[in-house]
UniProtKB/TrEMBL annotation:
Protein name as catalogued: Sugar transporter
Source organism of this protein record: Seonamhaeicola sediminis
Membrane-traversing stretches: 12-32, 59-80, 87-105, 111-129
Lineage: superkingdom: Bacteria
Keywords linked to the UniProt accession: Membrane, Transmembrane, Transmembrane helix
Length: 139
């Protein structure tokens, strides 16, 4: 069996990679809606929630941008089977942890489930990328 056939990723690799791209694409959309304060964004939240978001420190908003944009690039890297995707996943994970830690500590989010899910998915995508590299699926 040739090296390329032996290192061919299974269908689950492609499924997870596409899900990662969709997830981070949704994150980019959410960030842009928040950054531009669109009508659609304003209609999704209460006045109190919008005020909390508007009063977030700039560094938390920057971490949000880093998490989703770097995560989207990492997703593309994963789909292209590039090793550098793992480094980007780590950067995205660190940004997610920083942003979500601030939210959990200071905002007392009523949507704690979503906050935890975001952290778990960031950890999973980083782990999956590392595992994919170890399996020889990334070049």
């Amino acid at each position: 069996m040739s090296d390329s056939a032996a290192n061919k990723p299974p269908i689950t690799f492609w499924i997870v990679s596409v899900i990662a791209l969709i997830w981070n694409g949704m994150g980019v959309k959410a960030y842009l809606q928040q950054a531009y304060n669109t009508e659609a964004y304003q209609n999704m939240y209460t006045a109190e929630q919008l005020e909390i978001t508007a009063n977030m420190p700039t560094w938390v908003t920057a971490l949000f941008a880093i998490a989703v944009f770097v995560g989207a690039l990492a997703s593309i890297g994963l789909l292209l089977r590039k090793k550098w995707a793992t480094k980007l996943w780590l950067i995205s994970l660190i940004a997610v942890i920083g942003q979500m830690a601030y939210i959990l500590i200071n905002v007392h989010a009523s949507s704690i489930g979503m906050t935890i899910m975001i952290i778990v998915l960031a950890i999973f995508f980083y782990w999956f990328s590392r595992m994919s590299g170890a399996e020889g699926w990334l070049k």
